[in-house]
Amino acid sequence: MNVDKIEVRREEIGWDVASALIRALNAELSARYPEPGATHFRLDAEEVMPGRGVFLVAYADGRPVGCGAIRRLDHLTAEIKRMYVNPSERGSGIGKMLLTKLEAEARALGMKRVVLETGTRQLEAIALYSRAGFATIPAFGEYVGNALSVYMGKKLEGERQP
């Protein structure tokens, strides 16, 4: 896949395209984490409304191939949510492109730091975030106490790592 042919744009989280990508993400997470008590966290439409966050979809030749969101946690921190790239498109730079755009959206919201939660079995996601400058941080928010979670953060605007 040539990333020059990828378009990333804002979408409404309730639209069919976004819903289909989120269903695919949830199905993958359910397969990776089948044990009782494994939780897959939600993202509400009001959390990605203008001024609070954004939901982005990546398109390759007009086909939706990935998504991700930013939601404001407080006046300085945003959280990356619902990052997903179709398995057949992974390794092509789409995830990196989405992550870069999400960081730009966080900066546009005036955020100084981004954080995220991912799963211990999502080694490719952890590698992507690490390459992008994210470092391990303490548990936060609704994820505290989840043994299957990895927590990562990054200061924006070239500041030192958390």
Q: What are the main properties of this structure?
A:
162 residues, alpha+beta, Aminopeptidase, seven-stranded mixed sheet
- The CATH superfamily name is Gcn5-related N-acetyltransferase (GNAT)
Give the second-level CATH assignment, the architecture.
3-Layer(aba) Sandwich
Any idea of the CATH topology?
Aminopeptidase
SSE series: EHEEEHEHEE
Written description of the protein model:
The protein has helices at residues 16-32, 94-108, 123-131, and strands at 6-10, 53-60, 63-72, 77-85, 113-119, 135-136, 149-155. It has 162 residues and is of the alpha+beta class. It has a single domain, classed as Aminopeptidase, CATH 3.40.630.30. The chain has a 7-stranded mixed beta sheet, sandwiched between helices. The mean pLDDT is 91.
SSE diagram, text form:
Layout: E1 6-10, H1 16-32, E2 53-60, E3 63-72, E4 77-85, H2 94-108, E5 113-119, H3 123-131, E6 135-136, E7 149-155
Parallel strand pairs: 4-5
Antiparallel strand pairs: 1-2, 2-3, 3-4, 5-7, 6-7
Give a quick rundown of the structure:
The protein contains three helices and seven strands. It is an alpha+beta fold.
